[in-house]
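To whoever picks this up:

The parser on our side crashed when reading a file containing two proteins. I've narrowed it down to the boundary between the first structure block and the second sequence. Both blocks are reproduced below exactly, byte for byte. First block:
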Amino acid sequence: MIHVLFSLVFVEMALILALLFRTPMRNLLIIGIDQLKRGRGPLVAKTVAATLLAVFSAILYSVMEIRKREMEAGVLNSTDEVLMAQRLLEASLMGFSLFLAMMTDRVHYYIRELYRLREELEQVKTIKTGTRK
């Protein structure tokens, strides 16, 4: 599970970096994300995000149970320490991947808005220069 989460986080980071810099890859990514946001794409994305959030909550609950056992006993045994470390790593990776997914969505939205505003600005410039001639 941890390997999958690490690869998900790295893919999301690469996606955000590719969206930030003006390259031909960025245009392809924007077109691809636009197509993903049509049809059933948003429903699938929300379902996956809700599932990740539910698993994230379950992991946090598990961490709280281990903490409660530590408070009652006063000391953690080695098994609980390993479980706690693994659960905290999974929780942090899931939370970070959810955050990066939200950031990817916002970066895509802002780039689309920037393109739209540039097109409107060009239209206004052509109208103004056309009336002066």
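<<boundary where parser fails>>
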Amino acid sequence: MRTMMMYSSFLVICLFAMSEQCGCPAPYTQQIVCGSPIVVKANIESFSENFYVKNYEISVTKFYQGKGMYDTLSNKTTLVTPKGSYMCGPVVLNVGSSYFLSVSVYGGKMHHNLCQLQVEASSASNKLLVGLAGKYQENCDCEIPHMYDPPQFGQRSNNQCGYSPCHYDTVCARDGNGQCNWHNC
């Protein structure tokens, strides 16, 4: 009986944690950009919503990556976002504002959640702009630990940057010696 109660308690805790949590393993903008099929600057035109999602109508003004994939989409103006925290939402974008966004693609539509890049253009840092202009993509081969990776012990390879005390928009790039290091801290 005691074992059954412990098992039941454990199950309830696991279900609660799974239903209420959103985990974003990539804390650095470079990781998000390198792992995203499409990265754009877009104007938010309007939105509609139902119980589960908020659909933003957007107009893309600049591509940073993924133009070819964007061209294959059946819907090029709707950005689908979750409303529930268990799906890494709610995403809140201001109509009339412009954003730098990374998006994923499912079923011919663009999707976006809080684990992806979402920066209002008017508040973008110079580091972010330099990164989006090509520094992130040029250095995608430099390894940055994900949030849930165990700490590395011993000597790092030439491809690793390690955890950074810098801002999350900082670029992990190769230096003159070919070693990946944090730049613009």
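After patching the parser it read the second block fine. The chain has four helices and eight strands. Strands lie at 38-49, 53-65, 78-82, 98-106, 109-111, 118-120, 171-174, 180-183.
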